[in-house]
Design a protein that fits this description.
Elements (H helix, E strand, L loop, with lengths): L1 H40 L10 H25 L3 H45 L8 H13 L14 H6 L31 H43 L1 H9 L4
Length: 253
Amino acid sequence: MGQCGIISSKTVLVFLNLIFWAAAGILCYIGAYVFITYDDYDHFFEDIYTFIPAMVIIAVGTLLFVIGFIGCCATIRESRCGLVTFSAVLLLVFATEVVVVVLGYIYRAKVEAVVNHSIQKVYNEYKGTNTDAPSRAIDYVQRQLHCCGIHNYSDWMNTHWFIESKNNSVPVSCCKPTISNCTGTLMRPGDLYPEGCEVLVVKNLKDIMLYVILAALTFATIQMLGLLCACMVLCRRGHDPAYELLVSTGIDA
């Protein structure tokens, strides 16, 4: 019965190490996705610390590749030192993912305040040229999120670009794609997106941060299971004579 329990623990541990390798790829992908998405919205927030959860989750993903390799080798070779190292590193990564979850909640709560603080400044810097970074950022967001202005298209009337252009029009990025020959004129408000961009930018950034939090929680749970299995193998190796017999005779190798 003890032998079956040992073999079962080892089998689960090897399987979990394979999951760690898959998890490493997924975490790196999520972290990269967050960086790419934030790059599209980076003009709407100035707090670089918002990137911390993404940076940490990429580091954790990279470390999981190493953990999976150590865990598989230690489990197959019956290495007590390897299993101890595996357990210690796994515990460190688990603690790191708990930090990611905490930071994720903190920065998710700050997103709205940060965007509110900077979005008016970005719209005032709009110049309507492709060579200007804030202009490209606003046009991209308005096209991608199907929005216009901060709260609605009328916000453009208070911007420097609108006042200086004197054409009573908003950028063509405010135009609905179903409308042909749209010039952005305020004489035809039905051609423009009715919703403002601030709410949608905040929602997108909060959703991204939520994905990071859920991913960290999911893989932290898997890692805790791996840690428990490693501890079971270590404990039985030290206290179960049947296990020592299996190791010494090579039956379980």
